[in-house]
Amino acid sequence: MASEVDLRQLAVRREAAPPGEPGRRRIWLLRYGLPALLLAGFCTLAGVAARDVLWPPRQVTVIPVLSARAASTTAPADSPLFQAAGWVEPRPTPFFVTAQIEGVVEKLLVTEGQQVQAGQEVARLYPGPARLAVRTARADLELRSAEVARAEQTLKAAQEKARFPVHLKAELADAEAALAR
């Protein structure tokens, strides 16, 4: 068994790949492109998170308003009640309007971004919990009113006992009778 085996026949021939081969491009994209894309994404995320530090809001100078009282009560309705120099700009930061009470919104009467006036109805809440709270408060009021009436009757009875101490006279008579025996 001395047969000779030529190992060169079993070897895989690896020749240089042509420069336009797709395998090389994919390796380059995975090795350099993907990490660069991830790094750019993290830098963008950090920039958005720190935008208030990097770009602070614009400074605003506030000038007090000079108010004046009307000289007469018959002033025209469109006459100004106060004067201020300058212009009105919205705050550079967003602000939120909160409800005075909590509940479930039954009907929304405005859309996002719509201008509203002071006192304008914005939304209607589902009235169920509020009605229940009113009924509970009324029952509580009736209970407290009954307690007040009872306390007034107790006070009136105590005042009557103080004015006419018949119960003390009865106790005195019982004590005198016991002493006489």
**Helix percentage:** 40-55%
How large a portion of the residues is in β-strands, by DSSP E? 5-15%
Radius of gyration: 45 Å
Give the end-to-end Cα distance, rounded to a whole number of Å: 148 Å
Please describe the biggest sheet, giving its number of strands, its sense, and whether it closes into a barrel. 2 strands, antiparallel
In the sheet with the most strands, the strands line up as 1-2
State the shape: elongated
- What is the count of helical runs? 4
Query: What's the order of the H and E elements?
Result: HHEEEEHH
The protein's oligomeric status is single chain
Describe the overall structure.
- With 181 residues, this protein is mainly alpha-helical.
- The protein has a domain at 129-180.
- It has helices at residues 22-49, 51-54, 128-163, 166-180, and strands spanning 66-67, 82-83, 105-108, 123-125.
- The strands form two sheets. Strands 1-2 form a two-stranded antiparallel sheet. A two-stranded antiparallel ribbon has the order 3-4.
- The mean pLDDT is 81.
